[in-house]
Please model this.
Amino acid sequence: MTPKNQKFYNLKLFWRLTQNLFWSSSTKSQLEFPKKINGFDFVGNILKNRVDDKFQFAIYRSQNGEEYFAKQLSTKKSSLNEYWLRNEVSVYSVLKKIYEKYGDLINEKFPDIKIPKLVLVIDDNERLLCLTSRVSGEVVFEAETAEWIMHTEKIISYLRFINSLHDFKDEQLIKRNFIKMSPILFLATIRALMNYPKEYKQILKGFFLISINSLFLIHNYKKAFVHRDISIENVLIGSDKTKSLIDFELASYMHPMWEVVNAIVGFRRKEGFIENFSKSETMQNILNDSKSKKIYKLFSVYSGIHLLSQISSNEERVIANKKYLKYALSI
Model:
């Protein structure tokens, strides 16, 4: 992508993010999955009870009985959802390349962590579809907090190791620094104030805290490959205690601190997670270094404002979001 095209693409993305903050969108599922894809037979749709219908999901089976996971846009229409799915395809392509070169080394060091492997992509005038290997495991909501802390630390270590093997700088992934994120913070602050006017003191305190430290954030630009969405729903636990990390659509090349911040955001509703994760080795290394602690706090506040910019009918989620911003400001 040329610099000129990249700038135009960034403007389109900014407009889509603006639409996402201020106008909720819903798409009615219009596409049906193909009955056969390159020798893979359609088995059936899954995850039909998801809150949104922006994506569709299905299982395919090969002639030897192996199953594969398909994800496609509900409609082939230019949107923020298309942007996320294209990014996920790019991530899987890069990870496939890394595993082809370092797979034995990765599996030796992290034998209990699995990721889906890209099989094929359909990208034409009719549909955008990604087919990957189907990883084992289930979403385990009832797992103890201590167990989830252990899983989270292991996955963060795994992603750091992947970064040590490959430089993602030149890959076609989402690339973010604070300069690009600042306009989104401004829009999120406005939306958060509209959603929760009674929380204006916390929201404005967070906004001005980040604004005052914006130069500090801009100059601390070290970047790495970040999953950005480690959560209960995206870590499947197998019967053999393997951990399958899925859903890479938000993955980006950005400051590595976001991995820790977003993981805590993902588990903010898990009772006692934030308090106990603060005692972990990962967090102690951050909190005992003044520069790292400052970056962690500012990114946490940013995430807290962004959470309140999203309307939710789930009272438990709303309470957790408000509580998270207060936690971020107290760091």
User: Anything to note?
Assistant: Residues 80-109 form the longest helix (30 residues). The first strand starts at residue 36 and ends at 37. Confidence is low (pLDDT under 50) at residues 1-6. The two ends are 40 Å apart (CA to CA).
